[in-house]
Amino acid sequence: DADVTQTPRNRITKTGKRIMLECSQTKGHDRMYWYRQDPGLGLRLIYYSFDVKDINKGEISDGYSVSRQAQAKFSLSLESAIPNQTALYFCATSVSGGNYGYTFGSGTRLTVV
Amino acid sequence: GENVEQHPSTLSVQEGDSAVIKCTYSDSASNYFPWYKQELGKGPQLIIDIRSNVGEKKDQRIAVTLNKTAKHFSLHITETQPEDSAVYFCAASSGGSTLGRLYFGRGTQLTVWP
After folding, report:
1. CB atoms within 10 A of CB A15
2. B53-81 pLDDT, tens per residue?
């Protein structure tokens, strides 16, 4: 099984619908992140959480919300999806206590029509 | 916050040649610089990293160099192979309130032609 699992892998939804992307990890890492990838724009941080009780906005949090249900689970919600939220979404994890590399999931490709 | 710029955005090389990708960062407090490789349909994967107390690090065909004075760091791939074709991202991380948060460059699409 993958260390960081994202579900679903692909999703097509309609404008205005609420959608949740889920991330779970078996790494035992405290820190979890949600990134969005668009062609030519790289990886942009949406939200991050350094532990279960800590939630922080990233660069592009408008239109998104998150929930850290447990150390191992971090969900991203689009309350009312719009077409410009069509993108590839990645969850990542890292250890705490300093600067360390991330472990990424395989991504969720979201299309809003 | 930190600003990381990455060049070039696309790079094509012949198999066996070397490839170099360069990044600059803005925050002099940054002290950790990882590089990620993203293959088609997959998430980014850490391939090498360097900390600010080291000027160069090698792992087989890949190496990373860091110039703290100039605030830039580079990824070097020697003897490139078609399987090196991927998108490469550099990143930087600083301390203080953002400790642990990575700031990414926009990526470089590397294509290795056989």
Report:
1. 11
2. 889 999 999 999 999 999 999 999 999 99
